[in-house]
């Protein structure tokens, strides 16, 4: 539109109205049209002058005193992301109803704003394994996978089954926004020089204790760095006559039990595989000693006063329930016990502290950590929408803080700068006490696969089969420790061979 057209066809009021409409366009819509508006104003002053030639006459002379030249420049906006059918999300159903509900509400609002039909499917947490992975593989093979997975599932078999798309670019965006990830995320989710999951939040496993129970005995729990010392201290703080038990950790088939067993294994310098990942090393004197120590806690009468009744029948929720009922002085947990106390306004929350877990005679300082991540499923109908959703939740501080606030003490930052930039974390002293565990360097990390490759599908399959759980159950039923360890070793070798690995040396 020319300047002349503007002067001829529009009044100043029209131009101002046009400017207001342009500004409104900047507010409306998800990806607004960028419009640069410059108002054209031409001010004209008319003067009357006397011109004397032969006779006097009056002439009108136009004098331009101010001129603002303007034009409207339209910048073409990026195309809106549309979805085919519905946007399908698989969400892990975690221990925190408030977190599950909050996240579902935010995802619903996100999709509604964009006009995307949404389909959310819950997947139970801590109960998935091979069946869940096989279901994802079957859906991929059928061409009907979900668009996005928000879960803690291991990438080892998911990558082997070819059901994931790489997400390196998305992780790089998150790192540029929040700083580097913790070491464990790199260890668990980088394979073949690519990221296969976008870390969303970390879950720091550790010890949770009743401050008052330990203070009453004058014991500084933070100075205890060995399991053997911890068991003696837990025995001392126990008061079974008043229903206070020092050791609230089970070894049965449960997430907490598995976590405890792994720490004992590596703490005593016992390992499942060698550094090559080709051979099983489970049957060793170190493993026999580790399993002897671990099972003796539940079999030797010396330790009975510190064990709550029925501990060997516990599920993953049992230690939470016992601690929240005031029965335990110490337990292992992923933070759900503390978060539940806060959400329920249980007075025990104010008496709860975090203890970086102990180790054994070989590894005394190592930390365990889990993550909830975003994974993009290969063949999903809406890959662009999935990436937009990941960016929304991972790059927005409110979306990060919403998770921390709705799962307090359980959901932690997995990017270094969020420990300071978060509006919530710096206000939660117990969460801050977990920073050294959550952000520990790689040298302090001893995953189940140590010292071999982190992504050994044979170990993932063995874990799903629960062969170590079977070993512990056999020991508790009276099988000699060395015999039970040898049987478990042989089962590992069999599984390794099924994955075309030698398993054992000739």
Label the CATH architecture of the largest domain.
Answer: 3-Layer(aba) Sandwich
Global Rg: 32 Å
What percent of residues adopt helix (DSSP H or I)? 40-55%
Percent of residues in β-strands: 15-25%
- The N- to C-terminal Cα distance equals 85 Å
Structural class: alpha+beta
Count of structural domains: 3
Give a count of the beta strands, DSSP E runs of length 2 or more: 15
Q: Which consecutive residue ranges, at least 5 long each, have pLDDT under 50?
A: 1-59, 61-73
- In CATH's first tier, which class of the largest domain applies? Alpha Beta
Going by CATH, the homologous superfamily of the largest domain would be Periplasmic binding protein-like II
Largest sheet: 6 strands, mixed
What number is the mean pLDDT?
A: 83
Number of helices, counting only DSSP H or I runs of 4 residues or more: 21
Large-scale geometry: globular
CATH-derived topology of the largest domain: D-Maltodextrin-Binding Protein, domain 2
Please name the defining characteristics of this protein.
single chain, 506 residues, alpha+beta, D-Maltodextrin-Binding Protein, domain 2, 6-stranded mixed beta sheet, 3-stranded antiparallel beta sheet, 42% helix, disordered N terminus
